[in-house]
Sequence to fold (213 residues):
Amino acid sequence: MRKKWIIVAVTVGVVMLAGFISWGPIVSKVEQPKYKILESDGEIEIREYDPMIVAEVIVQGDRKNAINQGFRYLADYIFGNNTANNKMSMTAPVTQQQSKKIAMTAPVTQHAKESGWAVHFTMPSRFTLDTLPEPNNKNVILNEIPAKRFAVIRFSGMNTNKNLSVHEKKLLTYMSENNIDAASTPIYAFYNPPWTLPVLKRNEVLIEIENNR
Fold:
């Protein structure tokens, strides 16, 4: 009898583990921004993204804490904390970009007064700016983003500062070697829930490039 219960317990454990492993990729199969690949070289792509609308919040602090806090603000908005009490579908990825406020009397390349992180959710494509409900949290802003081109590197693993830095440097080296001019600071994109196994995670670093590419 004891052997039978051990077999049952092991079987249940294997099933639960399989479900746990597959759950991350399954729930990550949500709407994503549309783009076309213009060039491809291994793990690096040049993409052209369609116009999109994003919900954005600026959060101060270190990168990891900023994205966690920004995620909570934005999830709160799409799950009903808005003027219509409207719940919206989750999309992927969650993106994060360093943001700087520039002194009004200074050139835009100098004298950053305050730095932070801009965290974004892409809004479901069925919405327009006119049909999206207004956020109740005034820190959440809705922005329409025009079509843009990006150099992108895709990788798996944890979204640690070290992993992001390694792949950001690879992307910048590729851009330099191919005479591709950057038009923005790097954007970090995360596609999966935290419990997804690292080997199954999809992370990206994106850098906007000049349209004359």
In short: The radius of gyration is 20 Å. The helical segments are 2-27, 63-78, 161-177.
